[in-house]
Amino acid sequence: MEFLLTPDQNSYKRMTNAELEKGFVVPELFVADQITLTYTDVDRAVVGGVMPLSQTVVLPTHKELASDFFCERREVGVINIGSAGQVSVDGVVFDMANKDSLYIGRGSKEVLFTSKDAAQPAKFYIVSYPAHTAFPTKLIAQADANKLDLGEQEQSNKRVIYQSLCPKTLDSCQLVMGITEIASGNVWNTKPPHTHARRTEVYMYFDIPSHERVFHFMGEPSNVRAVVMKPETAIASPSWSIHSGVGSTNYTFIWAMGGENQEFDDMDHLTLEDIS
C-alpha cells in the first residue's frame, strides 16, 4: 500500500508542477495481475486499481488498516473501465460490463477480481471510505444509474452524469460515486467550479488517448493551480479545494466523494469571476 499525504492549503501555493503531482496524484492504477492501493489523508480514502489477466486478484488487507480483512470497517465502490469482468464478494459473483458499478458493503470478507478474457482485460477502479454500519452489496449497471444531462455546447461543457452509487440507487455510509462523460467537441467538466467543505472528492480521468491530457484545476479560488493529468490517473481533492478541469479533447472521469453529506447538489457554487 502506498500513501498520499496531501499538502495543506498554504504550502500548495509555493509548489512546482512536479511537487503538486507528488502531493495530490495517484499516478499508476492498473498493473497486470496486481492490485494497486493508495491510502490518502483525504477523509482516509483508499484509491486503487485492479487489472486481472491470467489470474484472480484478491483484495488484501494491510497492517496499516489494522483489520482482519479490508472491508472490516470500510465500504468500497468499484467501477469497471475495461472489458467484461467479474467480482466475487463472499462467494456471490457479479458480472461487470464496461462502466458498471458495484457497491461492496462493510463486513464483506472475501473480494476477488477476474477478467472474462485475458486478451481484453477488465480494469476495476476502486475507491473506499471508512463505514460505520453495513449495507448490502449491490451491482448498478450503467443503464440503471441516475442520469443527468448537463452543460451547453456553446460553453464547451456538454456532458452526461451517471450517478451510479448514490442515495437514489442504494444505501451507503458516506461513499457517493459515478461517471461523467464529456460529449464530443466539449472539454470542460465542472464549469463553473465549486467547493463543498462538507465532502472531499477523488477524480480519475480515462477514455482519452495516451498522448492527450486533462488540466485539473485545484486550490483555493483566490489561488488556483493546474495539475496536468495523464489518462487513468487519479487526483485527491481536499475539502478546501476547487476541482474542475479542461481537456485537450473530450474524455470521461469517475468522481467519488466521502464526507458528512451525500446530496449531489450540496456544493458552494463559484463563478469564473471568483477565480484568480
Give a written overview of the molecule:
With 276 residues, the chain is mainly beta. The chain has one helix at residues 17-24; strands at 2-4, 25-26, 35-40, 46-50, 57-58, 74-80, 85-89, 92-96, 101-104, 111-115, 124-130, 138-140, 146-150, 159-165, 176-182, 194-195, 199-206, 214-220, 223-229, 233-237, 242-247, 252-259, 268-269. The longest helix has 8 residues, at 17-24. It is globular.
Element order: H for helix, E for strand: EHEEEEEEEEEEEEEEEEEEEEEE
Could you name the CATH homologous superfamily?
Answer: Jelly Rolls
Largest β-sheet summary: 7 strands, mixed
CATH topology label:
Jelly Rolls
- N-C termini distance: 36 Å
Mean pLDDT level: 93
- The tally of helices reads 1
Number of strand segments:
23
CATH architectural designation? Sandwich
Strand content range: 35-45%
Please provide a brief summary of the model:
3% of the residues lie in helices and 43% in strands.
Per-chain topology:
Layout: E1 2-4, H1 17-24, E2 25-26, E3 35-40, E4 46-50, E5 57-58, E6 74-80, E7 85-89, E8 92-96, E9 101-104, E10 111-115, E11 124-130, E12 138-140, E13 146-150, E14 159-165, E15 176-182, E16 194-195, E17 199-206, E18 214-220, E19 223-229, E20 233-237, E21 242-247, E22 252-259, E23 268-269
